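Hypothesis: this fold can be encoded by more than one sequence.
Test: take the structure tokens below, design a sequence, compare later.
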């Protein structure tokens, strides 16, 4: 198969190189997915804390396992979405407009890691607050009102 592929490339070489100027089409960025993921982290944290620590039933163990899995997956999704916004959408002019922008993102990313490591309501609420702040800043940079409800 390798010989066939190599031969095909020799006789029919590619004549063009594909390239793109960014990871996604301009203007498609939206922090909504990070906000939804942060809300899921907060919800799962509350559910974990509401479980009876003395209940050792299989049902409770199963629920705990599912809540932890969802919390960790959603925290990672939030972190990925935030890092894409930070590195791909926000530009130097946004940092001029919001001088604490890098700190806001850095702290939000650190909170994503923290909520994966522990069950901490304060940190989950902090993550939600940070994501809401980023959400508000994002839409302000577009000269638009925040199109979604944001708590805190």
């Amino acid at each position: 198969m390798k010989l066939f592929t190599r031969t095909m490339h020799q006789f029919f070489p590619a004549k063009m190189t594909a390239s793109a100027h960014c990871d996604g089409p301009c203007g498609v960025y939206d922090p909504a997915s990070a906000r939804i993921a942060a809300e899921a982290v907060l919800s799962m944290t509350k559910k974990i804390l509401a479980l009876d620590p003395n209940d050792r039933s299989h049902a409770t163990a199963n629920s705990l396992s599912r809540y932890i899995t969802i919390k960790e997956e959603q925290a990672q999704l939030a972190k990925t979405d935030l890092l894409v916004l930070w590195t791909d959408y926000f530009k130097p002019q946004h940092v001029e407009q919001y001088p604490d922008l890098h700190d806001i993102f850095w702290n939000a990313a650190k909170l994503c890691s923290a909520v994966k490591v522990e069950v901490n309501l304060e940190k989950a609420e902090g993550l939600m607050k940070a994501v809401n702040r980023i959400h508000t800043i994002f839409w302000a940079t577009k000269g638009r009102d925040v199109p979604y409800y944001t708590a805190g």
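The two ends are 59 Å apart (CA to CA). The CA atoms of residues 94 and 141 lie 7 Å apart.
Hypothesis status: open.
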